[in-house]
Amino acid sequence: MRISAFLLAVVASGPAVAATITVAPGGDAQERLQTALIEAKPGDRLQLSAGRYALAGGLSLDVAGVTVAGAGPGKTILDFSGQKGEGEGLLVTSNDVVVRDLAVENAKGNGIKSKGSDGISFLNLRVEWTGGPKASNGAYGVYPVSSKHVLIDNVFVKGASDAGIYVGQSQQIVVRNSHATGNVAGIEIENSYNADVHHNVATGNTGGILVFDLPDLPQQGGHSIRLFDNEVTANNHTNFAGRGNIVASVPPGTGVMVMANRNVHIFDNDIADNGGNAIMLVAYRNAFTDRNYNPLPRSIVVRGNSYSGNGAAPKFPGGAQIAAAVGGTLPAVMWDGVTAFSVPGGGLAVKADGAIVVSDSPLLNLNLKTQGASPDTARPEVAMMPAMASAREPAAIVLPAAQEARAKGR
Amino acid sequence: MTRAAGLVALLLLGAAPAPQVDGARLLADDPAPLLSAYGLFADTGGRVPAAGVTRYTLNTPLFSDYAEKFRYVWMPPGTSAAYADDGALTFPVGTAIVKTFAYPADFRAPNAKLRLIETRLLVRRATGWVPLSYVWNAAQTEAVLKRAGARVPVAFVDTRGAAQQLDYAVPNTNQCKQCHQQGNDVTPIGPTAGNLNGGLDGHGANQLMAWTAAGRLTGVPTTPPRLARWDDAAAPVAARARAYLEVNCGHCHSRAGFASNSGLYLQHDEPDPAHQGIGKRPVAAGRGSGELDFAIASGNPDASILLHRMASNEPGVMMPQFGRTVAHKEGVALIRAYIAELK
C-alpha cells in the first residue's frame, strides 16, 4: 500500500496521496504502533482499530501532517497502566498533526503532549486516570507547550493531578466543546498569547478555568485571552496536587482564576455552585528575581456572566472571615487589589497598566496594594459595579482554514 | 578537500591502510538493516574497530544504567573535524559517531565475559545528523536495526558483588532525536572540545592534541576549555557537579533543547542562578515535584526537586525521562554534595 500510494502521488504530481496505515491491538502493540509512528510519511493516516492497546512505554510522533485516529474515545484505548518509562503517553513534536477519536488511560506522566508543534489538533479524545482523582495520577491530560495554532475540540479529561487541559507557552489557541472534571485545574492557559476558551464544561475540579503567567520562562507576559460561553460549575474538589506545583495553591471552590495576565476578557459564562470565588483575580504571590516579569493581573474585563450558588464556603485563608464580614456569601468576583510591585534589582514600584473592569457583579477588593503583601493585611471592601470602561476585546482566534478543515473531516 | 588532496593527506600520515569502512553505505538514504554492512568493525563481534575508526573517551560521560560504553568516530579519508568552542566539534559530512553499550557479567572483572547490547550510530549526512540503533543478537555475531527501540533484560554483578537485574531500554528513533535535538537540528552531544580535552581513558595522550597531530582536527586554540571529570576527587565539587548536570541533563535542559519550556538550563556555564534551578519553582513538573518547592534549595538537598527526580525510578517522576531505568547512586551523591555546599 505504501509503495503504490507513493507512486500515485508522484504520477499525479498533485497533492500527495495519503496512505492509511492500520494498526490493531494485540501482542507487540508497542513496537508495531511505534514503528508505524516512525515510518509514517507526511499526509498519512494511522488508523488505530478498536480495542485496548497495552503499552509498556510512551509513544512518540515526529512526522509532520500525520493523523493518528482511533475508532472513538470509548473504543480505541491506549492503556498505559503498565508504563515503564517516559514522561507522557503520546508525545508529538511535528507540525500539522491531528490526534483524534481515541482514549489515553492511566499515563504515568502526561497524557498527550505536543512540544514545538505548529498546527496541532486534539479532537474527540478522552484522557482519563481511571482510579479517580489521586495525587499519584499524571500531571496533565492534554498538554500542548511551546506550540502554535493549537486546537483542542471535544476533549474529555478526568483525574489529572495538575491540569486536565493545559496549554503552556503557546500562541493562537482554541479550546472548545471540551469537558474537564475531577482534575486539580480543569482548563489552564499559562504563559500563552491569544487564546479563545469557549463552550467548555469545567465541573468537579478544584479550580475550573485558570489563566496564569509565571516568571523565568522562555515565553511569558501572557495576554489576549477570551473565556466565554463556558459552564463552570461546582469546582469544589479537594486540591490533590503535589505541593510545590503552582496549582497546589488553588483553593477548592474556585470557578475562574486569573493570575498575572494582561487583557483577559471573561464574559457570557455560566458560573455556578463554586464554594469560593466564582472569579478570582490575583497577582503572583511568590518572590521572584526575573526583571522581565509582571506579576499583576491587568486590563481584565468581566461582563455578562451569570452567577448562582457561588461563594458560600470559601476555602482560601481568611475566606470564611471575609465572607462573614460581607454577609455570609462572597460576591462573585474577588480581586486582591494589588496594583504595584517591585522590579527585582530596580527597586521601582510599578503601577498596573490597565484597569480591572467588572460590570456584572459587585467586586470584593482585598486592597492588598503591593505584590507579596500578607493576606493578613487585607482590608476587604465591596465596591459598587464600576462604570463600563472602554477596554478593547481581544480579536477572535482564527486558526488556519486547513486546520479547521482537518477538524471537520474524519 | 579534493580526492587528490585527500590522498596526499593520507600519504603524509604515512602507511595508512585502505579504509574498510563503507562510507557510501553510511550516506545512503536507507539505513542498513545490519550493522556489519558499514564495515565499522574488523571482527564480526563488534569488538575491534576497523582501520580509521578512532576510539575516544569523555571526561564526563552520560550515565546509562551502568552500561560500559565504547565510543568511536570515523571520518571519511582526508577529512577533518573543526574545533568549536560550544557544542560538539563540527564533523564533516560522512562522519559516523559510534557508541556501543555493553555489560560485563561481573563489574569486578570488567574485561571478561562482556555482552554487547546495542550499538548506536549518528551519521552526518548532507542533510544533517541521522540517529540509528542496532541491537546485538544473543550469539554476539550481528546487530540488527531497531527503529522502534527495544527492551532487553540484563543481569550483572556490580562492583560491590551484588547481583543486579534490569530491563535495559534501547531508545527508538524519536527518542534519539529528542535528546540530540537543538532547535531544528540533530547534533552530537558528547564530543565537545571541553569533554574531549583530556587523556584517552583519562591518562593517555590528550585527545584534542592527538587528533590535531593526526590531521583529524583543526583550529584547536592554545588553551581549549576543559570540562571537569565528574569522578575526579581532586576537582572542586561544583565543577564536577555542573559537568555532570550538563552531560546528563543539559542536552534537554537548554534554551534550544526539548526541555526549553522548563526554564531550567543545566549547562556548566549557565550564569543565571534561577535558570540553574537555584530557588526556582517548578512549572510543569506535576507530581515530579515531590511535594517540594524548588528545583535546587541551596544547602538543602532533601528539599531539592532536581535531586528527587534524579533519585527516582518512577516514570512521570524520574529524570531523565528515559535513557536509564535505575538511579545513578554515585551521580546522586555528587549532586547531593553540590547542593549541600551551596549557600
UniProtKB/TrEMBL annotation, chain A:
Q: Where is the Right handed beta helix domain?
A: 86-212
This protein's superkingdom? Bacteria
Record keywords, A-Z: Signal
Pfam families the UniProt entry points to? Beta_helix
Q: Record's SMART domains?
A: PbH1 (SM00710)
Q: Which InterPro entries match?
A: Beta_helix (IPR039448), PbH1 (IPR006626), Pectin_lyas_fold (IPR012334), Pectin_lyase_fold/virulence (IPR011050), SO_2930-like_dom (IPR022442)
N-terminal signal peptide: 1-18
Q: What is this protein called?
A: Right handed beta helix domain-containing protein
User: What is the species of this protein?
Assistant: Sandarakinorhabdus fusca
From TrEMBL, chain B:
Query: What Gene Ontology molecular function terms does this protein carry?
Result: electron transfer activity; heme binding
- What are the UniProt keywords, alphabetically? Signal
Would you tell me the protein name for this molecule?
A: Cytochrome c domain-containing protein
Q: Which domain of life is it from?
A: Bacteria
* Cleaved signal peptide residues: 1-20
